Amino acid sequence: MSDIKSKVQGLDPNVSPRDVKHLASTTGNIYEVLTVISKRANQLSVDLKEELHAKLKEFAVTSDTIEEVQENKEQIEISKFYERLPNPVLIATDEFLNNQLEFDYRNQEADRSNS
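Above: the chain sequence. Below: its structure as tokens.
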């Protein structure tokens, strides 16, 4: 996962307009492109969430009372770092545009073999 974090450091976290025809040129269908990007974004989101929770779990303190809330500078910095990362959809879109995603049509291949 650390390779994703290092790769997206230069990526602009702001949303920018995309040429739909350019996106669809790879598959010929914009809906297929959106499906590929959304599935990859879901994978990235789950991976980043699990990594963040694992890092924050190190700072977990069990206490009996709610009033005992402690601030940990390292925990705050880790949280801020993950908040500054680009949205997983932006990362997935960038990967798609740079031809870093591989995808196939499993259902269509299964349907063809059954025919």
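Helices lie at 2-7, 20-24, 30-57, 73-84, 88-97, 106-114.
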